[in-house]
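MODEL INPUT / OUTPUT PAIR
PAIR INDEX: 1
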Amino acid sequence: MPTQCCVPLCTNKGGHRFPKDSILRKKWIQAVKRGEHKWKPSSRSVVCPNHFDDSDYKTTTNEGDPAQIRRLKTDSVPHIFPWKSALTPSQRRRRERGRKLQATEDSRSAWKDVGANVEISLEDFEQEPAKKMFLVVQPVTGRFVKEATL
């Protein structure tokens, strides 16, 4: 008789039993997040297929034929839960573009801050015109690294 999925907020019936391998079993227990102190799944506890995606399933049998029954790969761990927002590939790309853009803007503002704080005196150049001075500054932090002359 099928049992209800043990994932909180899920009411589906039937699914995959917890693995017997102790390390993988612990990963499943941590992923499910029951919230009960030291909760242990019973021999009948299951996690329904809604908490796995297609890449968690075998596509062929051991003989190489296409799989007719969906079986989990041996290292699959449930990872789709109501408390985690599942992002589509386009949402993931958009989020990554936003992070890259923010990093670029941060480095640009660091350079602006550095430029605003640097003072150069023309007297230095008038006294020794053959020598040129320059500053080496870290791009992200804007910290002064060294001063050099040519």
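PAIR INDEX: 2
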Amino acid sequence: MPKLSPELLSVLRCPVTGSALEQEGDELVTVGASGDKLRYRIEDGIPLLLPPELLPAAAAAPADQHDAGQHGAGQHGAGQHGAGQHGAAPRHAAE
């Protein structure tokens, strides 16, 4: 598995602890509060940063249950995005 870029690794954080992540093979790893290593798989070059308790539910969900499968082309269009903001930049979850 190729290494993720240093730029990407510098912005990724553990969803449980908020700590920086390090790549070990095909996983990203951080140390949890109890001293245990928290591991997150990298599949097809994409880090899967789901907390461990959500992995079984994500694996069990059919493909049409995932976000990308819920919206047809044009159904989640510009008319709904930013309604009432009149030209304001979209807000991100981190704001």
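PAIR 2 NOTE: Residues 6-11 form the longest helix (6 residues).
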